[in-house]
Inverse folding.
């Protein structure tokens, strides 16, 4: 049994977790997530403010994660930390803190790729969400379609050509006057839509005649969809959403939100189906903040039904950024014998380790 203390500070949540186990048999002993609410005021994450907020929060967040797990550093076998990709200043707070903690306690250090963390998140709650599987990772900064024959081997099948799925949700939310981050607000608004939707946006890059090997067979693109929403907002001369009180244009706003969500979700479901079919996978694992979206999960499950494939999605707490997933991926790397030196650095972007040829 190995016990990992993990730290995640790549964006706007300061998080620490303790997880123990071996191989795919693990138990989460604690998870503390402090979301930096301050960015709401700016409608997006301000990197400098994020770094400073991590600096204030890191000590109490790590202390609380140890306390909740009822362990001390003596009981911890290794410290895992997200060192890429993300905001460099934010990452550096976690990396520097993890290094000092590991050095001071005489424990090994493991660097973890944030997206590999998202890939492992679902397995914490669903023991069957393990390779081989098709993975769809949809977050604020990434949209990746991967084939995972085994942990540590990742075949990149498709990605976004422009906006990430979460980014598209956030931008459309802004157009509709909803708060940041907008994904869950779009989902809630779309859920108020009743009857047949008078609006329909086209599904980008999903023509039936596409073949495996075509450049856009697995890739997605959401900037056109975002522009289509913008045109609709302008055409209908939709006034800004009132700050308080009832919204007289709630029906139109709900129709736009629902039509946008339908188009985005259908596109992702189609690409995921193509990947699972081509690779002969019967398990599909979703990860990243957008995997909180119930319509996405349901639509992917529906689409892969002809393959008899099962879809696994993490709970909201494990779908959005958290240190539990970093602990889970860190345990895998640690058990493989990987150790980071004290010159471990932070990187804004870096490919997931273990990429294999498509
Ligand atoms: O994985 P994550 O927490 O952070 C990144 O690594 O980016 O993902 C955040 C993204 C945001 O764009 C947010 O709007 C989106 O996930 N999101 C959602 C939902 N909940 C969060 N998108 C659609 N529907 C949701 N329910
Ligand atoms: Zn993330």
């Amino acid at each position: 049994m190995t016990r990992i203390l993990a730290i995640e500070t790549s964006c706007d949540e300061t998080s620490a977790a303790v997880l123990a186990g071996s191989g795919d048999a693990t138990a989460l002993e604690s998870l503390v997530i402090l979301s930096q609410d301050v960015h709401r005021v700016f409608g997006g994450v301000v990197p400098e403010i994020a770094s400073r907020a991590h600096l204030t929060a890191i000590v109490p967040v790590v202390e609380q994660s140890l306390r909740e797990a009822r362990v001390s550093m003596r009981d911890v076998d290794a410290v895992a930390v997200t060192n890429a990709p993300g905001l460099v200043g934010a990452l550096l707070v976690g990396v520097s803190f993890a290094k000092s903690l590991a050095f001071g306690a005489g424990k090994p250090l493991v660097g973890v790729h944030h997206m590999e963390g998202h890939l492992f998140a679902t397995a914490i709650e669903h023991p069957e969400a393990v390779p081989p599987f098709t993975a769809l990772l949809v977050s604020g900064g990434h949209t990746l379609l991967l084939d995972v024959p085994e942990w540590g081997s990742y075949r990149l099948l498709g990605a976004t050509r422009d906006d990430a799925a979460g980014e598209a949700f956030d931008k459309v939310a802004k157009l509709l006057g909803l708060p940041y981050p907008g994904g869950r607000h779009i989902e809630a608004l779309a859920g108020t839509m009743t009857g047949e939707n008078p609006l329909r946006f086209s599904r980008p890059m999903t023509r039936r005649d596409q073949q495996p090997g075509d450049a856009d067979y697995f890739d997605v693109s959401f900037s056109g969809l975002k522009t289509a929403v913008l045109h609709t907002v302008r055409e209908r001369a939709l006034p800004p959403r009132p700050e308080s009180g009832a919204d007289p244009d709630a029906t139109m706003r709900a129709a736009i939100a629902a039509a946008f969500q339908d188009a985005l979700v259908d596109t992702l479901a189609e690409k995921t189906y193509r990947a699972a079919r081509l690779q002969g996978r019967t398990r599909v694992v979703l990860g990243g903040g957008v995997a909180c979206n119930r319509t996405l999960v349901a639509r992917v499950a529906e689409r892969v039904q002809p393959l008899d494939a099962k879809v696994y999605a993490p709970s909201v707490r494990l779908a959005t950024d958290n240190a539990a997933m970093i602990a889970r991926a860190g345990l895998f790397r640690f058990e493989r014998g990987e150790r980071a030196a004290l010159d471990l650095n932070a990187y804004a972007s870096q490919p997931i380790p273990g990429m294999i040829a498509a």
